């Protein structure tokens, strides 16, 4: 806070990433005090799902008395999808919204490590066809939908395995494992815990299909990584990237419901040609819209427009 107070005036623009955080709140406040233009990226935290389900009363108070008055004075709000922008519009923040998606360094995904690297890390896991969930273990990620959907898959197609890669709340993870046992599918699931680096990439190489059945995602970075890897992907209409990519037939999009998720997985597992088509479009979509060069260019133009507008106002005053 002291550093910002002393130095924020040395900058042309401040880009604040996140809300409901001391550091982001102070950054907005000190930029506003110094009359330095600032942009706020909500990071999906203002989406209805999170605002209404996690410490809702506390968030309402903080938003009303601390966050919104400062965001009202921002030069702009930075959203990573049109869906996020439309969702946050209900809060009537005065600052204009601007959509720039997240970018990804595509080079690690152009040539994945061999699937054998993943297999060597988990030698007891043997499967010809696999469904991969790779994300944080959290209620909103929809694993409680994926588990019964996977049971339905196994009733139609034998031998398929599910990889659940990621960590999170230990109590939630224990509940999910118990549910898997009760559903009779525990032995068909590999719980890898947190994986990173080449092992993470090798999991993509091992996967037949990627599935992200989330209830709320302002973007969906795990989905983008899977698309860049050339995986056919199933995701819900509450994942912003899924909605946008589905318009170009680059993702198989479903509603947030066990039945449609299961049906989509079964359909893809039974149709190799459709998997190839979806995978090709997914990779093309990632390169076209989310390469570092494409996103950095849009961000640079955005910054220049904000700074130019600010100079014009100051000159006029």
Please name the defining characteristics of this protein:
317 residues; alpha/beta; Rossmann fold; 2 domains; 6-stranded parallel sheet; 4-stranded parallel sheet; 15 helices; globular
- Taking the alpha carbons of the first and last residues, their distance comes to 30 Å
The CATH topology name of the largest domain reads: Rossmann fold
SSE string, helices as H and strands as E: HEHEHHEHEHHEHEHEHEHEHEHHH
Main-sheet strand order equals: 7-6-5-8-9-10
What is the name of the CATH superfamily of the largest domain?
Glycogen Phosphorylase B
CATH architecture classification name of the largest domain: 3-Layer(aba) Sandwich
Proportion of β residues?
5-15%
The helix tally amounts to: 15
In terms of topology, how is this protein built?
Blueprint: H1 2-7, E1 14-17, H2 22-33, E2 38-41, H3 48-53, H4 56-71, E3 76-79, H5 82-88, E4 97-99, H6 107-110, H7 115-121, E5 130-134, H8 143-156, E6 161-165, H9 170-183, E7 189-193, H10 197-206, E8 209-212, H11 221-228, E9 233-236, H12 240-246, E10 252-254, H13 258-269, H14 272-290, H15 292-316
Parallel strand pairs: 1-2, 2-3, 3-4, 5-6, 5-8, 6-7, 8-9, 9-10
Helix pairs in contact: 2-4, 7-10, 8-9, 8-13, 11-14
Question: Mind explaining what this structure looks like?
Answer:
The chain is an alpha/beta fold and 317 residues long. The protein folds into two domains: 2-102 and 293-316, 3-Layer(aba) Sandwich (Rossmann fold), CATH 3.40.50; 107-289, 3-Layer(aba) Sandwich (Rossmann fold). The protein has 15 helices and ten strands. It has helices spanning 2-7, 22-33, 48-53, 56-71, 82-88, 107-110, 115-121, 143-156, 170-183, 197-206, 221-228, 240-246, 258-269, 272-290, 292-316; strands at 14-17, 38-41, 76-79, 97-99, 130-134, 161-165, 189-193, 209-212, 233-236, 252-254. Strand 8, helix 11 and strand 9 form a beta-alpha-beta unit. Helix 2 packs parallel to helix 4, helix 8 (143-156) packs parallel to helix 9 and helix 8 crosses helix 13. The radius of gyration is 22 Å and the shape is globular.
């Amino acid at each position: 806070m002291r550093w910002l107070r002393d130095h924020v005036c040395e900058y042309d623009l401040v880009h604040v990433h996140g809300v409901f955080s001391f550091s982001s709140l102070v950054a907005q406040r000190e930029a506003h005090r110094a009359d330095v233009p600032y942009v706020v990226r909500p990071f999906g935290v203002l989406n209805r799902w999170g605002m209404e389900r996690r410490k809702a009363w506390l968030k309402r108070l903080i938003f009303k008395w601390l966050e919104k008055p400062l965001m009202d004075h921002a030069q702009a709000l930075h959203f990573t999808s049109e869906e996020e922008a439309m969702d946050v519009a209900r809060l009537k923040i005065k600052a204009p919204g601007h959509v720039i998606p997240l970018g990804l360094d595509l080079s690690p995904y152009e040539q994945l490590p061999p699937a054998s690297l993943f297999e060597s890390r988990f030698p007891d896991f043997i499967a010809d066809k696999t469904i991969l969930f790779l994300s944080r273990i959290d209620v909103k990620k929809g694993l409680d939908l994926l588990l019964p959907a996977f049971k339905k898959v196994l009733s139609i197609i034998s031998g398929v395995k599910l990889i659940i890669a990621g960590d999170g709340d230990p109590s939630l993870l224990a509940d999910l494992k118990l549910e898997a046992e009760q559903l009779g599918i525990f032995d068909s699931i590999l719980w890898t815990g947190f994986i990173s680096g080449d092992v993470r990439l090798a999991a993509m190489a091992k996967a037949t299909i990627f599935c992200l059945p989330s209830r709320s995602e302002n973007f969906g970075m795990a989905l983008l990584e899977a698309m860049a890897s050339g995986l056919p992907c199933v995701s819900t209409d509450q994942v912003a990237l899924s909605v946008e990519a589905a318009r170009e037939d680059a993702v198989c999009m479903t509603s947030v419901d066990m039945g449609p998720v299961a049906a989509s997985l079964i359909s893809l597992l039974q149709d190799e040609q459709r998997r190839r088509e979806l995978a090709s479009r997914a990779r093309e979509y990632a390169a076209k819209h989310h390469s570092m060069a494409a996103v950095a260019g849009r961000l640079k133009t955005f910054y220049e427009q904000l700074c130019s507008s600010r100079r014009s106002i100051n000159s006029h005053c």
